[in-house]
Design a protein that fits this description.
Blueprint (H helix, E strand, L loop, with lengths): L1 H19 L3 H17 L4 H27 L15 E6 L7 E4 L2 E7 L11 E8 L2 E4 L1
Parallel strand pairs: 3-5
Antiparallel strand pairs: 1-2, 1-4, 2-3, 4-5
Helix pairs in contact: 1-2, 2-3
Length: about 140
């Protein structure tokens, strides 16, 4: 029956992780699941607790930094930053003041980065920058 408490602990730690996003609670949740597995195999509580503590400490000390480094790579772009450099299709005339493009399957407001440039519908443009909800294109 001790494995149930370890699984409850793991679920609570996962809920805490969803609120903090630090990965520390996730690592402790994995360690709680390991302790639950050992409880199912018959390891007494006196053995489960040290395994939980050691697994938590080990995962937080060794795996978490690797994952955090991977997530913070300079080449990893998310959100609107990932759209910069993408090609887009002009759907209504784009000039220095107004226009519309189809970018990643969505219609965006757009304006030309170069005040002299004009792009007609059907032209393919490149997103140079995102300013609020407007794409600046060349």
């Amino acid at each position: 029956m001790g494995w149930v408490w370890w699984m409850v602990t793991a679920v609570l730690l996962l809920l805490a992780e969803s609120a903090t996003a630090t990965l520390a609670c996730l690592m402790a949740a994995v360690a709680a699941a390991v302790a639950a597995a050992l409880a199912v195999l018959g390891l007494p509580l006196a053995g489960q607790i040290p395994v939980f503590l050691a697994a938590s400490a080990g995962l937080i000390a060794f795996l978490r930094p690797v994952v955090m480094r991977h997530q913070s790579r300079p080449g990893l772009r998310t959100g609107v930053a990932a759209l910069v450099g993408s090609d887009a299709l002009v759907t209504s005339r784009v000039d220095a003041h107004t226009g519309r493009i189809k970018l990643s399957g969505q219609i965006w407001t757009a304006r030309a980065y170069d005040p002299e440039a004009v792009f007609e519908p059907g032209a393919v443009v490149q997103v140079l920058e995102i300013d609020g909800a407007t794409a600046l294109v060349i």
